[in-house]
Design goal:
Elements (H helix, E strand, L loop, with lengths): L1 E8 L3 H12 L4 E4 L4 H4 L8 E5 H9 L2 H4 L5 E3 L1 E8 L3 E2 L4 E4 L9 E5 H13 L4 E4 L4 E7 L2 E6 L3 E10 L6 H6 L3 E17 L6 E7 L2 E8 L3 E8 L1 H8 L3 H12 L6 E3 L4 E10 L3 E2 L2 E3 L5 E2 L7 H21 L9 H25 L4 H14 L3 H11 L12
Parallel strand pairs: 1-2, 1-12, 2-9, 5-14, 12-20
Antiparallel strand pairs: 3-8, 4-8, 5-6, 5-7, 10-11, 11-12, 13-16, 13-17, 13-18, 14-15, 15-16, 18-21, 19-20
């Protein structure tokens, strides 16, 4: 039997970050995951890239992850938001966020998921407060007055004061505990891939709103960009079957000529989109974080950042309990109080923006284009949205400050 302060089920980006954050605050942590950590670090497993908000990046600085990713981090210095129709018309009324308006600091950072996973895993291996057991399967768990007991296939029992579920949208732990979810399916799918292009992106992130859904071009290192192409299920399924040259031509129709010649340089993935929120984040000695608690539309690139803020808040809750000699597992309701409102507001915002921009209804289309143009001229409004995108509003956990 292994004893620790916390058991985290799920060794993905949020689970590993939460383990490092809590260990940074002095807690002992055991991570269990169904897959071997090495599997996560290949492009074939996950070729996605993530936009890391400025506040989230501060946590990675505190944890030393930025040093492990040296040379693989791309700053986002500008954000361009436009509205249009594929290959036909782009509205001249656009919204431009410039890092100069945020004091000159980048508004965010782009990292490839597989490289971030590797950096987190290397940091975990070097941390004597963290034990990782993978691959294994969680057979079940029980709550006792003294803590949580977890039963693992081929590894017996583990015990801890609290169990943290970071096991994704289809969380086994959430279902076993009986916590329900509110789910809203979108009539959309997303394609994710990476392209290489002739003209440098200069750190500019583009979000082009099209009738089928947003088309995001997010800067990566070495004249590459990550593409998140949201469209109707039929359009996405058709695009996924295209030969490489035809797929590149479809991307070019959306890019235009701003980056010169472009071409895919990675496999493409597609997945259906939906909004899902857990009805509760905690139950007894169990807490949900990341996609186990909430999964939102990728329209603003905030899904992972919500999970990272969960991880930072959990670290503060754990630290407060340890500092006062309290039972960590009995303090998890503070997570619910802290994170629930923030996450629900952000989820509702992305839902509204997606519905507002993913249509071709003439009055709405003209109104939103006018709105983008007006917003571009109002400095206080721009400053608010820059800080919101950077994750700098609200009561921030200590690692995000």
């Amino acid at each position: 039997m292994t004893n620790s302060d916390l058991i985290i089920v799920g060794g993905g980006l949020v689970g590993m970050t939460a383990a490092l954050a809590c260990a940074h605050k002095g807690a002992s942590v055991t991570i269990v995951d169904s897959q071997s950590p090495e599997t996560y670090q290949t492009a074939d497993f996950d070729g996605r890239a993530s936009a890391i908000a400025a506040s989230s990046f501060k946590m990675y600085r505190h944890l030393g992850i930025d040093k492990r990713l040296k040379g693989h981090i791309q700053s986002i210095t500008d954000i361009m938001i436009t509205d249009g129709e594929v290959g036909r018309y782009i509205s001249p009324l656009s919204l431009h966020f410039d890092s100069k308006d945020a004091g000159g600091a980048p508004m965010g950072y782009m990292m490839e998921n597989r490289l971030l996973r590797r950096a987190l895993y290397d940091a975990i291996k070097a941390n004597d407060k963290i034990t990782m057991i993978a691959p294994t399967k969680v057979l079940g768990f029980n709550e006792t007055p003294a803590g949580m007991t977890l039963n693992l296939k081929d590894h017996g029992e583990l015990s801890a004061s609290a169990l943290i579920a970071a096991d994704g949208r289809n969380s086994f732990c959430r279902k076993q505990t009986g916590i329900g979810t509110e789910t809203i399916p979108y009539k959309q799918k997303a394609i994710v891939t990476t392209v290489v292009h002739e003209v440098p992106h200069d750190g500019v992130a583009h979000e082009l709103f099209l009738p089928g859904g947003p088309f995001a071009i997010l800067p990566l290192t070495e004249n590459r960009s990550s593409i998140v192409w949201t469209d109707t299920p039929g359009a996405v399924d058709a695009a996924m079957t295209l030969p490489e040259a035809a797929f590149a031509a479809e991307l070019t129709r959306r890019f235009g000529d701003m980056y010169g010649q472009i071409g895919p340089c990675a496999p493409r993935w597609s997945y259906p989109l939906s909004l899902q929120m857990a009805e509760d984040y905690t139950k007894g000695r169990l807490a949900l974080i990341g996609d186990a608690a909430h999964a939102i539309h990728p329209i603003a690139g905030q899904g992972l950042n919500m999970g990272l803020r969960d991880a930072a808040a959990l670290a503060d809750v754990v630290h407060e309990a340890r500092s006062n000699g309290l039972d960590i597992g009995m303090q998890l309701d503070n997570m619910q109080i802290w994170r629930n409102f923030d996450n629900r507001v952000l989820a509702a915002s992305t839902d509204i923006f997606n519905r507002l921009f993913s249509n071709n209804i003439a009055p709405i289309k003209h109104a939103r284009r006018l709105g983008l143009g007006l917003m571009d001229k109002i400095a206080p409004a721009q400053s608010f949205f820059i800080n919101e995108a950077a994750g700098l509003h609200g009561e921030l956990p200590s690692l995000l400050r």
